[in-house]
Every structure is written in C-alpha cells, then in structure tokens.
Hints:
Blueprint: H1 18-28, E1 34-35, H2 50-59, H3 73-85, E2 96-99, H4 101-111, E3 119-124, H5 129-136, E4 140-147, E5 153-154, H6 156-161, E6 167-173, H7 185-198, E7 201-205, H8 222-225, E8 231-236, E9 249-254, H9 261-273, H10 279-290, H11 296-299, H12 304-317, E10 322-323, E11 332-337, H13 347-358, E12 360-361, E13 363-364, E14 375-379, H14 384-398
Parallel strand pairs: 1-12, 3-4, 3-6, 6-7, 7-8
Antiparallel strand pairs: 2-9, 4-5, 8-9, 10-11, 11-14, 13-14
Bound molecules: pyridoxal-5'-phosphate (PLP).
Amino acid sequence: MYRQSSKLANVLYDIRGPVLEEAEAMEAKGHTILKLNIGNPAPFGFEAPEAIVHDMVKQLPVAQGYSDSRGILSGRRAVVQYYETRGIHNLDTPEVFLGNGVSELITLSLQALCNPGDEILVPSPDYPLWTASVALSGGTPKHYLCDEATAWQPDLEDLESKITENTRGIVVINPNNPTGAVYSRETLKKIVDIARRHGLIIFADEIYEKITYDDVEMVNMATLTGDDVLCLTYSGLSKAYRIAGYRAGWLAITGPLSEAKSYLEGIKLLANMRMCANVPAQHAIQAALGGKQSIDDLVLPQGRLGAQMNLAHEGLNSIDGVSAHRASGALYMFAKLDVDKFDIVDDEQFALDLLREQKILVSHGTAFNWSRPDHFRLVTLPSVEVLDESINRLGEFLSGYKQK
Ligand code: PLP
C-alpha cells in the first residue's frame, strides 16, 4: 500500500545493502565485526586537522542563516584559488557550487541534465552512486570497462565503442574507487580527445585527488579540457581532510560556458530548491584549502595510510587464490578471487558467508557494477594490526570455501 516510487526500480547502492544490515544485526547481538567496508576515516582513528574543527566551531554563531544557494563566497573563492594552484585557470566563483558532500552534487548535476534515453558512460567497476544517480535521473548508465590486466586503466576502445547518438557524458573517477588506479596524463588526454570529438561532458570525480602513493602524478582533468570541453569537477573534504561527517564538497564547472547556459541554469535551479548546503561545513572549506594542514605525511610509505596500503597489498596477494594490484591512490584494494579455484556464483553470498564465519565485513565486487562475482573491495583505513588480523582470517576462511 505504501509503495516506493517506480523511479527507484533500477537504483542500487549495495555498499550499504543487506550485508551491512546483517553486520549491524550481528553487532546488536554482541559480536565484534572487523569492518573493512566503508571509506570513512574518522572511526579508524583519523582525526581532522584541528585548525579546521576550531575554525568551524568559531563560525557557528555567524552561520545561522541560509547562504547563497551556490555557497558562501569565501568558500567558493577558496576553491577557485586552490584549483589555480593545481593548474586550472579558467574557473570563476559563479561556476563553483558548494554541497552537502560530493554525493549531493553528483545527484543534483545528473538530475539537471538527463532526459529519458540520455546515456552516460560510467566506469565498471564504479563508485555505485554514479550508476544509481544516472538511473534515478531518468538516464541510462552504460558501463565502459576498466581493465584489470592494465592495472585497471580505462579501456578506451571499449569506452568509445559504447558511444551512441544518445551519449551525453563520460564519468571519470580518478584516483579510482574501488580500484585505486590513478590515470596517466596520456590516458586522460585521450579521454578528453574522445569527449571533444563526440561533444560529450566530462564528469571528473576527483575526491581522492590528494590521496596518492609512490609519488604518482595526479593530473586534474580540468587542466586538460580547456575552453572547448565542458568539465564538471567534484571534490571535497570527506577523505583528504577526514571529515566525511561534516558533509562538505564542491563542484567546479569549466569549459564552453556560453554553450552550457541552459544546463547551468538547471543546476542553479536545483541548488536554489534545496536552499543551500550546511553553512558551518561550508566554512570548513576555506579553513581546509587555505590552511597549512596536509595529508602528505600520511600517504608516505612510513605514514599510516602508506603502511596500511603496503600491508594490505602484501597480505592479500599472499592468500592462495587471491590477487590484487597495488593501489596508486585512494583507500581501497579491489581484489580478485581465482575463478579456477573457487566455485563462487554469488559474491554477495560470499561476503555474507565471510561475515558470519569470520566476523569480517567487506564489500562484494558486483556492488560496484562489476559484472562477474569474482572480486571484493577492502578498505585500507584500519590499523595494520586490524588489517593483518582480517587478512589472516580471510585466508583461513578461503582455505575451506567452495573449492572447485
Ligand atoms: N565519489 C567517490 C569516488 C567516493 O568514493 C565517495 C565516497 O566514498 C563520494 C564521491 C562521496 O563523497 P562525499 O562524502 O563528499 O559525499
């Protein structure tokens, strides 16, 4: 009787689906679960830089009213200046929108764009909010392959072969969740070239732009798109500044703005309709981008994130039947289960079995719009002790699980 909308028929967000619900039910019964499922730094002992929290608290008395629906000017200026230092010179404050995390801005910008039948190219595997948001907006997600054989680089032939007259844009997640790949300048240039030739928008999700390992070069897409390819860049404070709970993100739009007038008005209309993003969190943006705090120490090999990534990489590859590329960025490893060894046909069931037997929570690969039941994602935020313990338990579990 109280049914949900049919718009939700193809909308999936399984990272927070039945496996997590089962874990919560087990916790309620008193079990301790080792959680390697969500990229949320704070519960793993990562604290936000003190200056950001301090500044936000200080701003509370003056943050009581609604702001401009795009966001407070000081925050948008901070975003423009920040990107200036990263080589994006054609951005101005009217084209910056502050949001309740990148999540809100992803759904908002797709809602403003898609008509039924419009197709958006989304990577497989992806961060599933993208596929879900395209579907929710009435568009059709078309998946292009990121290829494990090339350490998860986008397969550009596959990408281009999926373009039709209905294609409107390409989503590029770099550094990538769930694979941890960071794309080379050359690859990004080729994607821009494809977008230019076919008149497509690029949606560049760069929320992990500051979390890279081994001195890999991180190139912001909008440094390559220039004035002739419309580029929507998304980033925020959830990961690099460890304040996912504050909900602070931004969208920066560059390129042929006069040709995108109608689309920009659509984005502004939807921004107006939700009044504005949480204003105290908007103040954190200037404090973060204008301040001296940095994540650089954490990502060094001897830093916490670097050491955890190394341990996860070695540990996973030491398990018989498991292999994983070392991530160059982000907070995850997307590990492969050997299909010649295991008889796994339902990877959600695999994650549930692992949870029930060993009290470890991972996300199954098909939750990331990966087409085969042969991967899982592990979050590298837990301490080396917890990661080590989890990987040992995983090895023990797999040594007796559904062998062929
Ligand atoms: N984009 C990617 C690739 C993510 O991994 C996440 C969160 O995990 C988000 C966007 C959403 O981030 P936010 O906390 O800013 O909404």
